[in-house]
Amino acid sequence: MKVLVTAKRVVDHNVRVRVRPDGSGVDTASVKMSMNPFDEIAVEAAVRLREAGQADEVVVVSIGEKAVTDVIRTALALGADRGIHVDTDAELQPPAVSRALAELAVRETPDLILMGKQAIDDDSNQTAQMLAGRLGWGQGTFACGIEPADGEVIVAREVDGGTRRVALRLPAVVTADLRLNEPRYVKLPDIMKAKRKPLEAMSLADLGVAGDAGLTLLGVSEPPGREPGVRVADAAELAARLRDEAQVI
Amino acid sequence: MTAYFAPVRELRFVIEELIGLDRVAALPGLEEATPDVVEAVLEEAARLAGEVWSPLNRSGDEAGCRLDETGVHAPAGFREAYQAFVEGGWNGIAADPDWGGQGLPELLACATQEVWNSANMALALCPLLTAGAVLALERHGSDSLKQRFLAPLVSGEWPGTMNLTEPQAGSDLSAINTRAVPEGDHYRITGQKLFITWGDHDMTENIVHLVLARTPDAEAGNRGISMFLVPHRFVDDAGRPGERNDVRCVALEHKLGIHASPTCLLSFGDDGGAVGYLVGEPGRGLHQMFTMMNEARHKVGVQAVGVCERAYQQARDYARERVQGRRPGGSRPAAIIHHPDVRRMLMTMRAGTEAMRALGMLAAAEMDVARRAPDNGDAAAAERRVALLTPLIKGTATELGHELTSLGVQVHGGMGYVEETGAAQYLRDARITTIYEGTTGIQAQDFTLRRVLRDGGETLSAVLDEAEADAAALAERDALAVEGKALRAALDGLRRSTVHLLEHGGEAALAGATPYLMQAGFVLGGWQMGRAAVLADRALEADTPERAFYEAKRATAVFYMRHFLPRADAFGHGVTDDNGATLFLAEEQF
Amino acid sequence: MSILLIAEHDGRTLGEASRRAASAARQLGEGYDVLVIGGPGCVGVADAAAGLDGAVQVLLCEDDAYADDLAEPVAERIATLVRDGGYDGVVAAGTSTGKDVMPRVAGLLDVAMVSDAVAVENGRTFIRPIYAGNALARVRCEDVVRVVTVRTSAFDSVAEADTAAPCERLSAGDHPPLSRFVDESLSAGDGPDLANARVVISGGRGLGGAEAFDMLRELAAELGAAVGASRAAVDAGYIANDCQVGQTGKIVAPELYLAVGISGAIQHLAGMKDSRVIAAINRDEEAPIFQVADYALVGDLFEAVPQLLDALRTRQ
After folding, report:
1. Distance (Å) from the C-alpha of residue C163 to the closest C-alpha of chain A?
2. Fewer Cβ close by (within 10 Å): the C or N end of chain A?
């Protein structure tokens, strides 16, 4: 089985983002960037399939400017076999990303595409489903378990109120949720090995994909702050205020 | 205790721009140390340190270590955290690939050491000592000893310890009286060793002790001391640890800080003698031990930088959160970071930490050159610089470590004195760094007598020539002319102190040694800060996209020049103008 | 403009989430049609949908193919309906089903999508949170068809209509067998689900152990609340990890969020700060949780929680 796994470079989850004063976006200059944490879980899942002998090749792809090769190298250090960098300076939205990935899927013919359930920058949670729709493949979103079976993959999905398992005919697209696994720490020797693994570069145009304009960002603002709260003396006062003032109990 | 985030951008600046990765990566065997590798290595070390090591810092401090009949138990989580470090290949970062190391530059290793020490100083002590054992065995051990012990030491699978101190033999090791009696291919070791860091624990299957002891017919004093390797557990032919050797921890010290690091009283030979193997030549033990001692001294300096960084981060985060009083001229309550005096404390912490970090990394880069330069002259010059800088960093960075972690407590006000915030732990932990691996007084003596006066000030003078050129470059920057002049004046002051000591020598030199060491540390720290300011100023001139970073870099350097260099000058007066005051009183007048 | 609202249901009842999503649908256009798609036996859901204020008509599409909420057939049927029916907007609640299905619909229609809208400014302009709610983006949808999921906590439920909308049955599509349902395990807990609970009571590391969570469960039972936890409590093994509230866990916005022994790390705040009312009990008056709390009780939680329970019981 061949696995294609995607990795997006995003503002590190520990960074407290600041909205630019002109409201044009959030400040990403000289901010620490990392692999999207959900993508890291997807990479880990792919590597575990490879280690268990259920996958024989793991290819990692990232789309964006030159700097995204950092996250590809990280994925290679985590155990992916080779990387593909789709080079573009444009800030793509999920439709264009899914178009590019669909084109790559046609070329690479993976049996399984593993992705993070969403990127923690735009929080869209769209690309994988769009991709699966375009390809006409089955989709297993929000996976907390992946078991390949005969020509299928059984995916345990996190849904409101519990988990539900679906069997997907291969090829299929699966997105990783938080509890799918705990990604390993990169080992120092693997950082060195990752340098020697193949990394192919292509442009977005090579894939015949243009940018997209489905959504126009009109502005970004700070979320409204909360009014200052009141300090209550004891539990009785808290109960009274919650009931009489806030009317929530 | 706040979360720890390794200052990766800052470390990359020091490695790549300030010290110059090009120079190090050009050395034979270090070709792989490219900027992308440096970044990836630092990011991954930062992650393990921040997510696994750092959360255990406070719980380890609270729990401490425990000794029972089976031996010493490290605090909860330490075994797993250490194993993650070993499995990640971090222990052998700069070690020889022939023994399983990664062969990366000391310069990069030094940065990662800082990160481990920031995250968890007590745990970081374990690999700190192992590194020394690797070096001693690599340089002095027989092939058969290397075959059996070097690979697991390099990987960290079996950590190493240094066994020097005895109750009557502290700073003066010639008084050692642990015995080593030959028996076939090995020796039987008997005696007690004091203050053995990580001397026993349950984090690993085995421990490799390097022990100084006397053979029966050895002469008295230093030349009668030999070095022995004593495995905590016997190792079979397949390299598996089995039965325990005749060595056990009989007591744990109750200390001011580093509670999670067991400081052991080790007893060798209670049941007839621990089996030990001679390392190197008989009678050369002390000399050989100094190989690892010097490395360890440098690492303790770096350790102090690590603790300062952590204390700074904690103080900064607290100052941003804690609302108290108003801004000058303001009417609304403000976070204390807006108060000028809190700013002063944070800037002092930041500037002092950055200066000492740069000096430590400079010495690490010189180690790379000393080890690998194809030209013998270059290697020898670098070796002399390492020898000069080592006591300087050990002495100054640790003294500042005490001062800056104390400021960290001060920023917290009353809460700093309460253990809950974690600020007090850094102060307690940092306190040992001015003491172990040779007190500041010992460093000052080593620096003054052996590293400066012995060669007539030549090595130092060459460094100062370079620093003067850099001061001139600093003075040429429009925005930094005043700082350039201040640095030049401070360099001149250091030369004056040096000349004074060369002319006076003797007891005067010993009385002035520590002020001289501190002056030199502050001035050379200023040299590196001056260079950083020039680099930052150029980056800003070239309209770098990382404006905030370089502005902060330049501003911190300016603060250093204006607040630390005058202190260097004050130390200089302690050297040149003492006029016998230090030694005037007779003993009975105290 | 014609809008299609996708009903959220379990085969028997119309979800509260749909009533809230209907508010968003009303703001998108004059009226909206409601699609009830599912397995056979959804008539009751369709009847309920017909009573949503503003609903023009209900479209009921019942077939075994749709019984298991599989995204592939459901999305395909929706996409076909949108094309055939000439809809220029599709709205669904941002539930796990909506999040699964709607982007696939957008992919099939080859249009962009707006996820998790918290406000509808006009027919094309939406506000949606990004960076875990640390910023709000204002976006305009340029495509012919607007596909939108909404964060239901940001919208009120629509009222009950005076007259029921007419209902029309739709035929099922012919869908390739891309996936099949295997089984499911829904949480057996008596209390409400964390993501949808009206009241959430969360515990942090201040609880000191798994036992103390029993105290919170008792309180939760009294209030009909769900129990959540901070990452620190989950990491310390006090409680199962599916209870984690925060940036990397569940994002909740209940009517009342009571944080007990939680200091309020940024990543936790990201998961609950949109709650309508926040109350916090913590020993440390400097705890960041108090910066977002409407009601702050500084004190020992081991005293305060039992007292709170008493206070609630004696007043009822």
Report:
1. 32
2. N
Of A125, A166, A234, the CB nearest to C103: A125
Q: Identify the residue among C286, C289, C290 best suited for mutation to test binding to B, counting B beta carbons within 10 A and taking the highest.
A: C286
Size of interface A-B (CB pairs under 8 A): 57
Find the mean pLDDT for residues A113-118.
98
CA distance B254 to A97: 60
- A185/B84 CB distance under 8 A: yes
3-state DSSP assignment of residue C247 = coil
Torsion-angle region of B7 (φ positive above 0: left; ψ -120 to 50: alpha; else: beta)? beta
Over residues C142-158, mean pLDDT:
92
Question: Which residues of B are the active-site residues?
Answer: 437
pLDDT, one tens digit per residue, over B214-252 is: 999 888 888 999 999 999 999 998 889 999 999 999 999
The answer to whether the beta carbons of residues B491 and B463 sit under 8 Å apart is no
Chain-chain contact of B44 with A73 (C-beta, under 8 angstroms): no
Pick the CATH number of A2-244 from 3.20.20.80, 3.40.50.620, 3.40.50.11890, 3.30.565.10: 3.40.50.620
Pair B360, B110: CB distance under 8 Å:
yes
Q: Domains, chain C, ranges and CATH?
A: 3-169 (3.40.50.620), 199-315 (3.40.50.1220)
**pLDDT 10s digits, B455-498:** 999 999 999 999 999 999 999 999 999 999 999 999 999 999 99
Structure confidence at residue C134 (pLDDT): 87
- Helices and strands counted in chain B (H then E): 19, 14
Q: Give the distance from residue A117's alpha carbon to the nearest chain C alpha carbon, in angstroms.
A: 10
The shortest C-alpha distance from B318 to chain C (Å) reads 10
For chain A, the domains span 2-244
Residues on chain A touching B111 (C-beta within 8 angstroms): none
Q: CB C215: neighbour CB atoms within 10 A? A: 18
The angle, 0 to 180 degrees and rounded to 10, between the axes of the packed helices B78-87 and B121-140 is 50
B295 secondary structure, DSSP code: H
Q: Chain C residues with CB inside 8 Å of A215's CB? A: 112, 114, 139-142
Under DSSP, is residue A46 helix (H, G, I), strand (E, B) or coil?
helix
The answer to whether the CB of C66 falls within 8 A of the CB of C37 is: yes
Contact call for A95 and C100, based on CB within 8 A: no
Task: Give the pLDDT mean for C232-236.
Answer: 86
CA distance B72 to B197: 12
Q: Which residue has the tokens 């204006």?
A: B562
C54-87 b/e with 16+ CB inside 10 Å = b? bbeebbbbbbebbbbbbbbbbbbbbbebbeeeeb
